[in-house]
Amino acid sequence: MYLYQDLHMDKQTSLAKSGNDLLSRKWLLALLLWILTNPLPLLAQSDSLNQQINTGKDPVGTASPSVEGGRKSKALSIRYNVITQYTIQSTPHLPELSASSAEVRRLNEFELKLRVPLILKPRNKLILGFTYKLEEYNFKDPESLDSDIDTNLEDKNLHVLAMDLNLLTSLNDRNYFLGRVRASLNGDYATNDFPITHYTKFMLTAAYGWKFNPQHALAVGLSFNYTLGRPSIYPIVIWNKTINQKWGFESILPARFMLRYGLSPRSILLLGYEIDGNSYHLTVNQPPLSGFPALELRRSDLLTKITLEQELYDFLWFSIDTGYRYNINFDLAKDNSFNNEPIVSNEVSGSLFFNISLFIVPPKKLATKYLKDADIN
pTM for this structure? Predict the structure, then answer.
């Protein structure tokens, strides 16, 4: 059974996919219930860092990339995204394969993120993060698909299970260091033989920053990640600035830029773009693709969007956003290497997307208390 099922569509799924997704959902439900029934210890521990990020005020003698009036930090978030109908035109670069086309009726994405503070000191912050993401492709007329890749995506969902460590070290009252390391398992997972080395991806980011004042912070560094679909190393600029009481922007260039407008203390409007991508290991049992045991589906999209973040009650917020997705890369590579030569090239049409999420931020009463404690220390 699909996680999100169109009640007017009679759609069959394989037993392997159903059993695998059912097990994943049981674990996710158990984790979610535990967090929702035990939120306060998590929020109390993370509050000092989150208030620093939301106010831009650093403890005396320290610096951070946070700015006054910035967006709320999220201890827990649950997100559902739907990408509307689009087409895929496939051009193979193997003589055994033929060109094909398919229409995706809908792409459903479900994501759960959790952040747990490990160290919260005035000069050193270490945050542990967990992410689970499920991508479900729903093709129009799945019985008529003539591409092994499209059939594979229809039969088996894509999963991302990730863990990351985020470090913020304040060097003095003006400079700071940011570091992030992430390990994830990306792929279809629907196989009895689980080659963990093929599914595993590593990402690393490091940056050195300057805090000019509570409204302005800038950092430069390098990042190794899969934002462009393939493994890439490129320079980054983390630039956050509050222009006045209403306007500001937050960015991680070149991957993201969001213009921020404060509608009220409880409501924020954002407009901008984001480059979103990843790489997934696929297990295809049909020849000739079965002869490539390390197949990688490389995806990268440019998302132009408008977002509204709204407080519901104290520590509970929600956000909605919509926009247009332009595909940059959706190609099949023979392995997870820096080689950019695809064995199947896909041309994907643009499409609208809609997103809704709920997230937990530190309660205001706890936030005030922990900000005072941080200033004293």
Answer: 0.82
C-alpha 195/C-alpha 212 separation (Å) is 48
Distance CA 56, CA 38 (A): 28
Find the angle CA(5)-CA(9)-CA(15) to the nearest 5 degrees.
60
Quick: pLDDT tens for 165-208: 999 999 999 999 999 999 999 999 765 556 678 899 999 999 99
Round to whole Å and give the CA distance between 145 and 100.
9
d(CA 155, CA 143) in angstroms, rounded, equals 11
Q: Per DSSP, what are the bridge partners of residue 261?
A: 247, 269
For each of the domains in the chain, give its residue range(s) and CATH number, in order of start. Answer: 15-376 (2.40.160)
Q: How many CB atoms lie within 10 A of CB 11?
A: 13
The DSSP code for 40 is: H
Place of tokens 């009220």: 264
**Cβ-contact 279, 229 below 8 angstroms:** yes
Q: Rounded CA gap, 205 and 237, in Å?
A: 11
3-state secondary structure of 244: coil
Q: Which residues contact 143 (CB under 8 A, 6 or more apart)?
A: none
CA distances from 236 to 61, 177, 178, 183, 206 (A): 26, 14, 12, 20, 9
Distance of CA 230 to the CA centre of its chain: 16
DSSP 104-168: EEEEEEEEEEEEEEEEE-SSEEEEEEEEEEEEEEEESSGGG---HHHHHHHHS-EEEEEEEEEEE
* CA triple 359-363-365, angle to 5 deg: 170
